[in-house]
């Protein structure tokens, strides 16, 4: 059993169907699950006590994993797949899984699964086909908020009503709808004040719970000609983070894309932007005093560490065979990188897709401390989550 005071890394190879448990910073593999093809898109949801939730897309199961426990798989609940997004309430009791495209080219599934881990109850209903994002607001009578596109909307459902739906996957219309632009992509939830956020082309749309519905707030502008496609709540200092992508819209010209780290302080309303460099930058990870980004570019990849004091450290990463190249797109049939960190630790992990390697870096020094070599290749970069037992990461109740 891992030391409860030390960080633990879970590494998912969703193509090979394996999950590795790795100690940090030693890099020792102490456990493994096989035959588990986790949804890379739905990601990992941090739960209280160092646990995480994720979805096995092949078996159609929501898994609760405890890397600090005697048994890694604590719970398995049948859910509809392919999993698109995963979210829960701050207690980690009520979880919601939406379905998306999976291996298809057009939206086809409108199934939504809700589960109450305390009672063991679960239900599936039909909502609307698409690629819906999801957040859950508590407040005594939990609300499930779905973010839809084309047409854009925030659809509000009572969790209790969804859970009480009869068998047969009935269609359940929302209780209320709040309009959104049609290009929403990226979700965050601030449980304390009961706010949800959705990234769109014109900025971050925000809405606050009022009784059983939502009331729209002022849009937070990007203050840039670029926009964010990913949104994350910073549990360390109550802020929103994104990566602003600009430049030519043609994906074949991705090496020319510009990238900025975008941070909006929810207490002061101030926004800060930091240039990250050209290429492909997407997801980010939050360590104790740093925010980590991976940048992929034909001229060289790097891990970018942005300190709370504004300092920027750049760690060059070895090239990946099968990496995105000039003249091709940065996501079809290519290798990628995943990044993970914990707000309770200074360690950052980043994968080398196709090579079965994970780099462990100390954010305080910007140097690599260890390199883990696994027995699966981590095609497409795999997916990671880094936890300490009491790191507060569960304050962000959206899967990453």
Mean pLDDT comes to 96
Through-space gap between termini: 25 Å
Fraction of residues in helices? under 10%
* CATH homologous superfamily classification: YVTN repeat-like/Quinoprotein amine dehydrogenase
Compute the number of structural domains.
Answer: 1
Percent strand: 35-45%
Number of distinct beta strands: 33
Highest-level CATH class = Mainly Beta
Biggest sheet layout: 5 strands, antiparallel
Poorly predicted tracts of residues: none
* Rg result: 20 Å
What is the fold named in CATH at topology level? Methylamine Dehydrogenase, Chain H
Structural class: mainly beta
Give the CATH architecture. 7 Propeller
Number of helices: 1
Shape field:
globular
Keywords:
single chain; 400 residues; mainly beta; Methylamine Dehydrogenase, Chain H; five-stranded antiparallel beta sheet; four-stranded antiparallel beta sheet; 1 helix; globular; Quino_amine_DH_bsu
